[in-house]
Amino acid sequence: MDPEKRERILNAAMKEFGQKGFKNASTDVIVKEAAISKGALFHYFNNKKGLFLYLYDYCIDIFKNDMQMKFNVDERDIFTRRRQATLLKIEILKKHPEMYDFLATGYMDDSNEIKTDILSRNTELIAMSLVFLNEGIDTSKFKDGLDVKRAIDIITWTIEGFTNKEMHRVKNFSLYEQNFDEVLKELDIYLEMLKKSFYK
Fold first, then answer.
1. Longest dimension (CA), the chain
2. DSSP, residue by residue, 35-72
3. Between these two residues, 117 and 180, which has the higher pLDDT value?
4. What pLDDT, in 10s, does the model give residues 135-178?
5. Cα 194–195–196 angle (5° rounding)?
6. How far apart are CA 91 and CA 128, in angstroms?
7. Are 15 and 98 within 8 A, CB to CB?
8. Nearest residue to 183 (alpha-carbon basis) of 168, 196, 194
9. Which of 118, 124, 165, 182 is deepest in the core (most CB within 10 A)?
10. What are the residue ranges of helices labelled H in the chain?
11. Cβ distance 55 to 13 under 8 Å?
C-alpha cells in the first residue's frame, strides 16, 4: 500500500475507533476522512474487524519498540523498573497522542466480535512484558526467608490492578484532560508500601 494512503487510513480509523469504540465506529466515516473508497478499504483490511485488529497491533508494536529502545535494562531494582516502565508509557502516549484514545478504548472494549482477540493480545503482551520487566532484577534486596517469586507476583498483580483501575477511570477523558502527575503520585504510594513490605 502507498505509505501516504496507509497513514490516511490508519489516522482516520484511529480517530473514529478512539471516539466511538468498535461497535459504533463507522467505516463510512473512516473512508470519507481517509479519502478512499470503501472497496479499497476492504481490499486492504477485509472487514471492520480486520482493520481494528491491524490498528491495535500497529499501536502495540510502536509501544513495544519505543519501550525496548528507551528502557534501562541495567536498572535492577524491581520498583524502579516498574516506575520507569510507567513513565515510558506516559512519554510514548504524549509522543503519539492519536494513539491514546484508540488504545484506551480498545483495551476496555467489550464488543463480542473483538473481545476474545483483544484479550488474547493483551494476555500475550502482559506475559512478554513481565519477562522483560523481571529479567535480571536484584533479588538480594528482598527480606531473608521471603518467597521472592510470590512477592513478585503480588507486586505484578498490584500494578496490574492499579493500571486497570486507572484505565476505567480515564476512558472517558482525552489525553489532554489527564493529570499524569497525580497518577504517578498514587502509583508511588503503592510502590512504597510494597517496598516496605518486601525489602530489607
1. 65
2. T--HHHHHHHHSSHHHHHHHHHHHHHHHHHHHHHHH--
3. 117
4. 899 999 999 999 999 999 999 999 888 887 877 666 556 656 67
5. 90
6. 20
7. yes
8. 168
9. 118
10. 3-24, 27-34, 38-45, 48-70, 78-95, 97-108, 112-134, 148-170, 180-198
11. yes
Give the residues across from 142 on adjacent strands. Answer: 199
Q: pTM to 2 decimals? A: 0.75
Question: What is the CB neighbour count within 10 angstroms for residue 139?
Answer: 14
- Sign, CA dihedral 74-131-68-194, equals negative
Phi/psi for 47 (5° steps) reads -160, 180
Q: Residue holding cell 510494597?
A: 194
Residue type, 76: R
Quick one: DSSP state of residue 11?
A: H
- Tally the C-alpha atoms within 13 A of residue 70's C-alpha that lie toward its C-beta: 15
C-alpha closest to that of 9 among 68, 24, 109, 43:
43
Output b/e per residue, 60-80; b: 16+ Cβ within 10 A: beebeebbeeeeeeeeeebbe
* Nearest CA-CA partner of 16 in 8, 7, 24, 25: 25
**In terms of Cα–Cα distance, which of 77, 4, 78 is closest to 36?**
4
